[in-house]
Q: What sequence folds into this?
């Protein structure tokens, strides 16, 4: 799922941003070289946090996924500079949702570094998706009979078999009717 969401975010940004290259964060960032004349936007899964379980019998949680959108820009203020692209990325992604996930929302933006004329900023966006356990069938005892007692007597489901020595008072409609007050 993370790979599919990352791909969808890259496609959305690539289709809406002009003047920069958009791609998934490289597998080997130490050997990555930016060749684009203006800059590049890199998308990567950052982290996930989980809510407390919503039920007691099944693990159902909200999974908050954060995406780090890293900008490597050769310019800071001019058209298609870091400031403009940072704002554009935020506007393109805020409120947009991928299949099966909530709307993306901004979490933080920060300056990371400036080296040899390349400005590095990161914008963190987040959304939630459900996290549900893959429940396995439990080997529990088979429920064969349920007895309920109310003001009209005791009822068994299924009714007791008289050949098995069932109590006639336990039959539907059996038992002692309530006393009139």
A:
């Amino acid at each position: 799922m993370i790979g599919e969401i990352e791909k969808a975010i890259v496609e959305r940004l690539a289709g809406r941003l002009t003047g920069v290259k958009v791609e998934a964060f490289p597998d080997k960032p130490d050997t990555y070289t930016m060749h684009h004349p203006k800059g590049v936007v890199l998308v990567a899964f950052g982290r996930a946090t989980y809510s407390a379980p919503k039920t007691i019998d099944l693990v159902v949680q909200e999974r908050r996924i954060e995406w780090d959108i890293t900008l490597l820009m050769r310019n800071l203020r001019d058209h298609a500079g870091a400031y403009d692209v940072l704002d554009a990325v935020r506007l393109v992604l805020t409120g947009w949702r991928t299949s099966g996930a909530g709307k993306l929302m901004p979490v933080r933006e920060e300056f990371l570094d400036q080296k040899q004329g390349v400005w590095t900023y990161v914008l963190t966006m987040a959304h939630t998706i459900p996290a549900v356990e893959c429940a396995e069938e439990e080997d529990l005892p088979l429920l064969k009979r349920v007895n309920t007692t109310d003001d009209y007597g005791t009822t068994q489901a299924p009714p007791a078999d008289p050949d098995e020595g069932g109590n006639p008072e336990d039959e539907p409609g059996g038992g002692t009717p309530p006393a009139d007050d």
Observations:
- The mean pLDDT is 87.
- The beta strands are 21-24, 39-50, 60-73, 105-115, 118-132, 146-150, 153-157.
- DSSP finds two helices and seven strands in the chain.
